[in-house]
Amino acid sequence: MEDGQTAATGRKKSTGAGKGEGHAANTTALHGFSTAVQLLQQGKFDKALAAFEKLEAEVPTEFRERCRMYATACRRQMQRTRLKFETPEEHFDFAISRLNTGDYEEARDEFAAILADYPQADYVYYGLAVLEAMLGRTQECLASLTQSIELNPRNRMQARVDNDFQSMLDDPRFTELLYPEAP
Predict the structure, then answer these.
(1) Separation CA 78–CA 80 (nearest Å)
(2) For labeling, which of 17, 74, 109, 140 is most exposed (least CB within 10 Å)?
(3) Cβ atoms of 93 and 78 closer than 8 Å
(4) Are 144 and 132 in contact (CB under 8 A)?
(5) Contact at 8 Å (CB) between 146 and 177?
(6) What is the pTM of this model?
(7) pLDDT tens digits in sequence order for the chain, 183 residues long
């Protein structure tokens, strides 16, 4: 039997050499990961993105997907800060594009941003109502649609034929909102 082999298996025994090196590399990578997350939280998206991209090859496997996810979030935030809208309608179109691609949280954020500057924008409340209907959030849908109709009664007619409200058709409150004159 060679020096360093076990009697039972004949395989080489681990001497522990190199073990500290791997641990030190993991510790350094995890510290870098923590620093990158802090940069992201501070809104320093360009620096955080560079850090996450560099870390992807250095962190343990279980952190790689998280680095990719955070890098994507940085790119999205960097793109978002570059977007400037000439009109609230243009901003609304962008919010609807987020809704149509299934990015519901970003769509909601965009709707909220428009309403912060234009609280009388009936079409934004209508967009929120559609979003809430798509997510099955009945109460929120009804509240947004009510606000939209109060600001612009023509939205009632639009909602009557809008397929985005299919999930709401069986709710008597929805019917009452759209057909208040019915007995």
Answers:
(1) 5
(2) 17
(3) no
(4) yes
(5) yes
(6) 0.58
(7) 445 444 444 444 444 444 445 566 667 777 888 898 898 888 788 888 899 888 888 877 877 888 888 888 888 887 765 578 899 999 999 999 999 999 898 899 899 999 999 999 999 999 999 999 999 999 999 999 999 999 999 999 999 999 999 999 999 999 999 999 865
Q: How many other CB atoms sit within 10 Å of the CB of residue 175?
A: 14
Where in the chain are the domains?
19-80, 88-178
Please choose, from the candidates 153, 163, 159, the residue with its C-alpha nearest in 3D space to the C-alpha of residue 174. 159
The owner of tokens 């590399």 is: 25
Tokens standing for residue 143: 């509240």
Q: Distance between CA atoms of 135 and 169, rounded to whole angstroms?
A: 15
CATH fold label, 88-178:
1.25.40
